[in-house]
Design brief:
It is built from six helices and six strands. The protein is an alpha+beta fold and 178 residues long. Strands 2-1-6-5-4-3 form a six-stranded antiparallel sheet. A hairpin with a 5-residue loop joins strand 1 and strand 2.
């Protein structure tokens, strides 16, 4: 009788575990569908800094044709492709990147310029990074969300130049009048 009861309990526990795993898979699949449609890049790093998740937008923004290609490349190798600077143009060490700071336990954000070393092409990105803690308060991973604002920065620069040219034209045109 005891063996039959233990067998029944074990069978119920196995069924519950299988149900929980199926629900977890369904949730993961639903989340992946949602994140696939997001235009911002989203990555997750484990405590060692290795990328363990990236959506398609992240791969595209960083310059990879596939998510798998990005995830298979060590982060240090990815970052060697770029010179990173803050908004004022000062070089930014890798330890000061928002993701690195999030792995240290702080929320971080920045406007960064990435210049590709080979081509010199510039890309402006707004990055925010958030640490995710485990039940003991240790950083489990960091989530990075970034948006490419290169076109907006270019338009702002063109508008600024146009305003300066207009101001110069007006100043030159009114010199003889006053």
């Amino acid at each position: 009788v005891d063996n039959a009861r233990l067998y029944d309990e074990a069978h119920k526990e196995i069924a519950e575990r299988e149900r929980a795993q199926e629900e977890l898979r369904d949730s993961r699949d639903q989340l992946e569908i949602i994140l696939r449609g997001v235009t911002d890049g989203i990555t997750a790093q484990d405590p060692s800094g290795r990328l363990v998740y990236a959506n398609e937008a992240a791969a595209r923004i960083i310059g990879y044709s596939t998510v798998e290609g990005l995830l298979e490349t060590p982060l240090q190798e990815v970052m060697r492709r770029f010179e990173v600077a803050d908004e004022s143009g000062r070089p930014l060490p890798l330890d000061d990147l928002p993701g690195s700071r999030a792995l240290q336990g702080e929320e971080a954000g920045a406007l960064l310029r990435f210049r590709e070393v080979e081509t010199g092409e510039e890309q402006w990105v707004v990055v925010s990074a958030t640490p995710v803690f485990d039940e003991r308060g240790r950083v489990r991973f960091a989530v990075n969300i970034f948006r490419d604002i290169t076109e907006r920065r270019r338009a702002e620069g063109a508008l600024r130049q146009s305003g300066e040219r207009y101001r110069t034209f007006i100043e030159q045109s009114t010199e003889g009048i006053w």
